[in-house]
Amino acid sequence: MNLTGKKITVHDMTLRDGMHPKRHQISLTQMVDIARGLDAAGVPLIEVTHGDGLGGASVNYGFPAHSDEEYISAVVGTVKQARVSALLLPGIGTVDHLKMAHELGVATIRVATHCTEADVSEQHIGMARKLGMDTVGFLMMAHMNTPEGLARQAKLMEGYGANCIYITDSAGYMLPEDVTARIRAVREVLSDSTEIGFHGHHNLAMGVANSLAALEEGATRIDAAAAGLGAGAGNTPLEVFIAVCQRMGIETGVDVFKISDVAEDLVVPIMDFPIRIDRDALTLGFAGVYGSFLLFAKRAEAKYGIPARELLLELGRRGMVGGQEDMIEDTALTLARERGLR
Amino acid sequence: MGKIKCALIGSGNIGTDLMYKLLRSEVLEPVWMVGIDPESEGLALARDKGLKTTADGVAGLLPHVKADGIRIAFDATSAYVHRENSDALTALGVKVIDLTPAAIGPYCVPPVNLAEHLAANEPNVNMVTCGGQATIPMVYAVSRVQPVAYAEIVATVSSRSAGPGTRKNIDEFTRTTAGAVASVGGAREGKAIIVLNPAEPPLIMRDTIHCLTDETPDEAAITRSVNEMVAEVQRYVPGYRLVNGPVFDGKRVSVYLEVAGLGDYLPRYAGNLDIMTAAACRTAEALAGGMLKLDTL
Q: Where is the site Transition state stabilizer (chain A) (predicted)?
């Protein structure tokens, strides 16, 4: 693989996907400290707010320590060179959230749908484009659609006004060949001026390898998190990815040592538990289950006595998609009743 | 005794499913279906069932309202044309049941506030959203026991049952449902989430209701209230089923439901669409009861 001289944009996930393993409780001080470190290390784009995006504050996904407005304002006011982005899942957040984020200085909006449901993003992508934002269509759980199917969904989002389309491995299920096939199919149908991005999870330890596979097929944006802080076994570890890019001559503009210091000195100390491929995170990647289900399944195990691994397998078998966190307690209750535990 | 004559505005999935429900009614008689496409399947099915049809929109119906004795009309078209449709019909004394998101009349969730709307003699009532019809009765079942600070609902529908209108304006669902969860359900604050799931075979509609009460929940009273309300909704949606709960966790009360439809015209998994047509039918039957001086509540 020769990617020497390729210029890419790394997009930090620590302060958004990283909210999942922190149960959305990252403090404003922690957020500002980490954002300052990422900015100084040269990270060009930093995503913030609730793990489930704008408007994610809920019983279903968890109430965050601070509001979307507070997180965005704090980080926008901290960074010098980096731009700030926000995620929006139609069905959870609305265009009102989008306008609020824009007014507070968010430059990039990522409108996320399940990989077969792109047509719910039309009003949000359209509005973001009208506001002149860097507008990204974010196709989640991309392993659940074929390369051709994803290409059709990507084309829809491009048609609504997205200038970048992401293939999102929300379950950390894909292997490099899966990424290659999907990015290639999407690249073929999109306009040359539309960028392609890849968002990986590390549940099968494929974060870096999958990101490279995406770059080789023409992706130019890669999501990663310092020390991997993200749902499941975490995102593609940013400092590792930057080091690999430097060895390969891929230009990221991020300093290897500065970003590894951010990971070690600022992010690892705030972890509630080590971000690693434990048996439950492995199950996510193995069975193709939405990454942020992990802690909910562990809590249901503690409360109802059904092993998290069995819950995750059952949720995967039933084809649950991102956002259906409510079905975890429901499934645990049903299984516990069937087994005479309640 | 004569039945109350009705017109269906809209010949799509909702209008057609509603026709089958009205054809079974003991107090309602569908006599007109109004469409805009002469080739539509709904209009053809309506003609088969002996209804008069027009493909000229509401304008095609208006000259016949008096002669055919239309007393109730259902609008299953779109929010954009609803006000015009409604104004033309109510001017002729027709009661209008709005299944669009227009919401120019008050929200109607039958087991919660139908009696109130009948007493107020409202010319137009709105059926909220599918998620609202499925979940607001549960919010109300908790709030009638004790104050609810916050209620949140998660509606998951199969991708196949979410039409282009819903998809183009999904924010309308979240905003309208959240508003009605508070104003009709009786929570001080409401939130609504909708998830589309493409699994095959299609999943039956699922609804989760989370309430946060001010004080520690009265488990026995809430459980009784929830079970009574489930039975009440089952009178018009037999596939409305409590799967789990109510679950009590501190001040959180959670109810897990499944809503299967009757499979009249729409498939059984599309409980989200069925509960709209069933609630509209129930509302019309109550209106008709008043007109016929019957007690159909």
A: 16
Give the mean model confidence (pLDDT) for residues A101-115. 98
Q: Write the CB contacts of B194 (distance below 8 Å, at least 6 apart in sequence).
A: A91, B131, B154, B155, B156, B157, B170, B173, B174, B177
Q: What pLDDT does residue B294 have?
A: 63
Plot region of B167 (φ>0 → left; ψ -120 to 50 → alpha; else → beta): alpha
pLDDT at B295: 53
Q: How far is CA A106 from the centre of its chain?
A: 17
> CA nearest A52 in B: which residue?
B193
**Residue B170 with chain A: CB contacts under 8 Å:** 90-91, 120, 123
CA A16 to chain centre: 8
Residue A61, annotated ligand binder?
Answer: no
Give all domains of chain A, ordered by start, each with its CATH number.
Answer: 9-270 (3.20.20.70), 292-338 (1.10.8.60)
Average pLDDT value for residue range A303-328? 97
Q: Which residues of B241-274 are buried (b: 16+ CB within 10 A; e: fewer)?
A: bbebbbebeeebbbbbbbbbbbebbbbebbbbbb
| Residue B211 appears among annotated catalytic residues | no
The whole-number average pLDDT for the span B151-170 is 92
pTM: 0.95
Closest partner residue to B193 (CB to CB) among A58, A119, A123 is: A58
Nearest CB to B170; choose among A58, A90, A334 = A90
Point out the catalytic residue in the list A20, A24, A50, A124.
A20
Residue B78 reports pLDDT greater than 90: no
Both tokens of B73, joined, read: 């009309």
Confidence at residue B1, expressed as pLDDT on a 0 to 100 scale:
61
Domain B4-104 in CATH 3.40.50.720: yes
Given a contact cutoff of 8 angstroms between Cβ atoms, the answer to whether B104 and B98 are in contact is yes
How many residues are listed for chain A in this entry?
Answer: 342
In sequence order, what E strands does A106-249 have? 108-114, 134-140, 164-168, 195-199, 221-224
CA angle B289, B21, B109 (to 5 degrees): 60
| pLDDT at residue B293, rounded to an integer | 80
| Domain locations in chain B as residue ranges | 4-104, 130-269
Contacts of B175 in chain A (CB under 8 A): 94
Cβ pair A118, A137 in contact under 8 A: yes
From the list A95, A96, A330, which residue is nearest B244 (CB)?
A330
How far apart CA A310 and CA A332 sit, in angstroms, is 9
For residue B154, the surrounding DSSP H or E stretch is strand B148-158
| Residue B120 pLDDT > 90 | yes
Active-site position among B6, B130, B211, B281: B130
The CATH code for residues B130-269 is 3.30.360.10
Report d(CA B116, CA B98) in Å as an integer: 17
